[in-house]
Amino acid sequence: MKKWLIGSVCFIFGVSASAQIDSSLLSRTPVDTSLRQSMNMDAVYNRPFLQSGKIPVTVGGYIEADYQYIGEDGVTDGHSFRIPRMTIFIASSLQRKIKFLTEIELEEGGKEIAIEFAALDLSLHPLLNVRGGVIMNPIGAFNQNHDGPKWEYVDRPIAMTQMLPATWSNVGFGLYGKQYVNDWALGYELYLTNGFDNSIISNSENRTFLPASKANKERFEESANGQPLLTTKVAIRHQKVGEIGLSYMGGVYNTFEKDGLVLDEKRRLGVFAVDANTSLPGISTYIVGEWAWVRVDVPDTYIQQFGDRQQGGFVDIVQPVFRRSLLGFDKAVLNISCRLEYVDWNVGTFRETGGNISDDLWAIVPGISFRPTAQSVFRLNYRYMQQQDILGNPPAVIGGVQMGVSSYF
Q1: Cβ distance 92 to 100 under 8 Å?
Q2: CA 54/CA 56 separation, integer angstroms
Q3: What SS3 state is found at 27?
Q4: Strands 360-373 and 169-181
Q5: Counted domains in the chain
Q6: Domain span including residue 120
Q7: What is the pLDDT of residues 22-51, one digit of tens each?
Q8: CA triplet 366, 367, 369: central angle to 5 degrees?
Q9: What three-state secondary structure class fits 211?
């Protein structure tokens, strides 16, 4: 599989290189990286793609690189540089009503290669479209709308990566649609896919941890328990106000039966999320946020370190300072911003004492970002956060500087 993926990446770069021979044959589709015009469900196609002449295949991608100097309780590992990810897009319209898109991500300098999205869409009506393949489950907004160049921060939101499994995708099928009425847009998505497995309560984190299931590559070949994962979302948007979305993801996560032998009762998990974004009139302050609640049926034999309830989310506030021509860039933008985030991996109290179960984290991340174009961003963040253990001991204090760049290409 890795050889096939590496070959595909080489092919993509070969197409891009040959297309650059004659720049008059190139065209690039626009992208709105400010997230203000389209809905979150459109994010998979709302990207810049490069096309050569009349070739029906378009390509694109983005890269992220950053530097950080982070310390915990006064102890630091020093200076660190990394390329957390580079992503390649390939899209093709097979017919006016049939289109295909895939997203291939190379993480940590190519140490890991993953297909995050690879689906065929059949359009029957604006309110009825069929999608099948490797689907990105639409829980919340960030899972679908995660491209680095769209955000003002080096790190992805903690709750969406360490509580929910960011870029969570599975093989499956479903329906989606959207309808416009004047300034209003209403959209929905409904998918059945493969899902989670026992690793969410049996992992090296020693807590209930949904992202652990991402390590199971077999979910792209078969279900861990033969039960589908349901993911559904509805969202409404007003062009002058913003968008709000409600989503749910749930199903059986454990292997309850094997070869006809009953191993356990069916244990379910459920995730409910709300996301919203808006832009304040007059001052153009952009606000985007997401909050999620997780419920997991944890066996009674597990210690209370494995929580059956979790919650967390984030809010980003982005204020443009100026928009003007600068240093040869016609539409440069300088932003100041601040992210507030919180996650509690174990909501509840100890059965024996009634005391609060901690295992939580909060963070504040002020930042400055410069966008020479809408498709590229240079970011400077200061991260400050405190994390408590399960017993509520004095929190670990973590802080430091992060700088990075992210750009579509």
Answers
A1: yes
A2: 6
A3: strand
A4: unpaired
A5: 1
A6: 2-408
A7: 333 345 554 444 334 589 999 999 899 877
A8: 165
A9: helix
Contacts of 83 (CB under 8 A, 6+ apart): 63, 64, 65, 108, 109
Largest separation between any pair of C-alpha atoms in the chain: 73
pLDDT digits (tens, 9 = 90+) for 330-386: 999 999 999 999 999 999 999 889 999 999 999 999 999 999 999 999 999 999 999
DSSP-assigned letters across all residues of 241-284: TEEEEEEEEEEE-S--EETTEE-S---EEEEEEEEEEEE-TTT-
Q: What is the token pair recorded at 98?
A: 């049939």
What letters, b where the CB count within 10 A reaches 16 and e where it falls short, cover 300-329? Answer: eeeeeebbbbbbbbbbbbbebeeeeeeeee
H-run or E-run covering 185? strand 184-193
CA distance 90 to 25: 18
Give the pairing type, strands 309-326 and 286-296.
Answer: antiparallel
Q: Strand, helix or coil at 228?
A: coil
Of 384, 322, 402, the residue nearest 152 (C-alpha): 402
DSSP of 311-364, one letter per residue?
A: EEEEEEEEEEEEEEEETTEEEEEEEEEEEEEEEES--SB-TTT-PBP--EEEEE
Residues across the chain: 409
The span from the CA of 89 to the CA of 332, in Å, is 26
User: How far is residue 59's CA from residue 4's CA, in Å, rounded to a whole number?
Assistant: 17
pLDDT, tens digit, 9 for 90 and up, residues 127-151: 999 999 999 999 999 999 999 999 9
Write out the two tokens for 296: 């997991």
Q: What is the Cα–Cα distance from 97 to 130, expressed in whole angstroms? A: 11
CA quadruple 198, 144, 82, 151: dihedral, nearest 10: -140
Half-sphere exposure for 407 (CA within 13 Å, toward CB):
11
Q: Whole-angstrom Cα distance, residue 336 to residue 338?
A: 7
Helix (H, G, I), strand (E, B) or coil at 173: strand
C-alpha to C-alpha distance for 309 and 402, rounded to whole angstroms: 32
Which CATH number belongs to the domain containing residue 302 in this structure? 2.40.160.10
